[in-house]
What we know:
The structure holds two protein chains of two kinds.
Chain A: E1 4-15, E2 18-30, E3 35-39, H1 46-53, E4 61-69, E5 72-73, H2 79-82, E6 90-93, H3 97-100, H4 107-119, H5 123-136, H6 142-145, H7 155-167, E7 173-177, H8 185-202, E8 205-210, H9 213-216, E9 222-227, E10 230-236, H10 237-242, H11 247-255, E11 304-305, E12 311-312
Helix pairs in contact in A: 4-5, 5-7, 7-8
Chain B: E1 4-19, E2 26-41, E3 45-49, H1 56-63, E4 71-76, E5 79-80, H2 86-92, E6 96-99, H3 113-124, H4 130-143, H5 160-172, E7 178-182, H6 190-207, E8 210-215, H7 218-224, E9 227-232, E10 235-241, H8 242-247, H9 252-260, H10 266-271, H11 302-306, E11 312-313, E12 319-320, E13 328-329, E14 337-338
Parallel strand pairs in B: 3-8, 3-9, 6-7, 7-8
Antiparallel strand pairs in B: 1-2, 1-4, 4-5, 9-10, 10-12, 11-12, 13-14
Helix pairs in contact in B: 3-4, 3-5, 4-5, 5-6
Amino acid sequence: MAMLEVRNLQVGFDTPEGEVQAVRGIDFDLEAGDALAIVGESGSGKTQSMLALMGLLAENGHASGEARFRGRDLMKLSPGELNQYRGAKIAMIFQDPMTSLNPYLNIEKQMIEVVMHHQGLDRREARAHAIEMLRAVRIPDPEQRIRQYPHEYSGGMRQRVMVAMGLLCEPDILIADEPTTALDVTVQAQINQLMAELRRSSNTAIVLITHDLGVVAGLCDRVLVVYAGRVVEYGTVEQIYYQPRHPYTRGLLASVPRLDAVRGAGLNAIPGNPPNLLDLPAGCSFRQRCAEAFEACGEEPALRDLGDGHLSRCHLEPEQ
Amino acid sequence: MNDVVLRVQDLAVHYTVYEGGLLRSRERTIRAVDGVSFDLRAGEALGIVGESGCGKSTLARAILGLIRPTRGRVLWLGENLTELDEEALRRKRRELQIVFQDPLASLNPRMTVGDIIAEPLWTFFPKIATVQVEERVRGMMKMVGLLPNQINRYPHEFSGGQCQRIGIARALVLNPRLIICDEPVSALDVSIQAQIINLLQDLQRKLNLSLIFIAHDLSVVKHISDRVMVMYLGRSMEVSQQEHLYRRPLHPYTNALVKAVPIPDPRLARAQHETGLTGDMPSPFNPPEGCVFHTRCPYTVKRCRIEVPALRRMENDDWVACHRAEDLDLSIGKQAKLA
């Protein structure tokens, strides 16, 4: 049994225009120390699937399916029970540190609250622990800086504070939702390095949510590619980068501008736009943007095993 | 060179900020841009890269006169734009246009796409015939890859990538000679980014536009630029030919930036361990003495702490502001070492 087993996870939202199926059945396993990337465009359901298993969906959202963490199904827990897991066993860090930190509270107040709640430490112990975490994410002069407010930190430092907060209770799983998208390349490299180190030193499992296959290669072992709320391809980073099988994955890889590319060659963009979830095409959701679509694509393909655990949802792949 | 269209000389933008209470307020100066010079030729694409807060967007606005520079000159076809009055400057903007980062926020939500693209035409040619405007707008929509029959739709009905196409159409409708793109793709998904980069590159060639492309993503800039300028704390660290800059950077900061770009290849990415740069950019209120990069530079010597390095010309018309440029071999792929 894996540490986290997600089965047939579905998320829908009630909107004035009707029900939007944001996630339409996602499955994956996560072991301690794993690093899994969930890759997809805006609206692919990558963030909503993770919010669902944290019980953090918006009010008009509803989720179904299973998310068994060490055998207990998170989807069946009451908010009170879930609070024993959130932040303590499973932590999440978000894309925009400025909107996830409370601007009215200094960093100390925001950090020690979590530790006092989950680990039963008193204020002084909690503060010492928070300072230790800030030092671990290389905030200079943490004893002084912990008293400061979010606006007194730079963008990169705020994101490092978010990582430190995520790790305060030494969670088993750290879910990072586009943690470096708003940051500069040098800071991005620092944050990625930091997550890689934490994974090595404390065996924390990492789920990295991103639209950019560029940042995944160095950090993760396995990749889940999602499109319109469904998994379209799954494999190890080697399988995904060196033998991508789904046309969407191939398109995503070709769109990443590379430093080692020949200039003037033009990028191979995926034509068209991500589909409207309210009005999905029948059959394969990617077929309108796919250069290789043929008659069979009018029917939804199954997720097929191509061998060695490499999965792809495409009619071009022969049945095994 | 004769075909230089834009010459920026020692351009500086300083902001004054008042801090503290009513009685004990202090005046502090931010040197957002502090003495930047470069030339841009007809049909050339210049990339400007640097981390947030390095002054690249302020520079763009100062070139267009959207912010009045504190010092320096902006020569557009030989004419100094910084000396023009508002009205004369406004008329000049027919030739110099800008595309902004946030595609949706930079479009008026209450105007139709057709009206948004036509607005510059009405502003500059108030007596133009309506049929002519509509014909031109439809032509522009087609050119940037929008369906002309969507002319009466509103921005919220379009995706981010399509909104950026609208922004580009609006910038091009007056046949400008220079377009400044300020982070035009950083808000877009990777697959859509590629569409917009390809579009800009096509249009630039087709219309022989001069292009200034501002971004923090070095791989995007590499794709589109002939030359690249690297900025740090309001100053230009290096201006080099694109092929040179990415293979053998002259400045240690450029080297750190290039090495920090994630590689979309698992084996190569795992081998890329050191980032070469630690710490944060110093506060622009209080930039370091001497070379502004010396606090984070692995090659700092005494001279770097005292003397501000001038931007000077090296081989092949590449320029660098580093005292030690001759001593360092920063070729990418090799460990940087002393020559």
